[in-house]
Amino acid sequence: MGDRVRIGTTGESVFAVVEVPDAEHTVIESVEDAAGRYPFEMRAVDLVRINPDTSTAP
User: Are 2 and 12 in contact (CB under 8 A)?
Assistant: First the structure.
């Protein structure tokens, strides 16, 4: 938890992993402080972990 991810390889927004309910799903939330921000569930296979120092895929 706490890892930074993008949705897919072309995703622009950065999300933080807030929960891993099972091996196939991950709950993420935008790292941007925006009105209406909320956690939501995604398939883990659709997420790309990024390097927190550079915001790029490792």
Answer: no
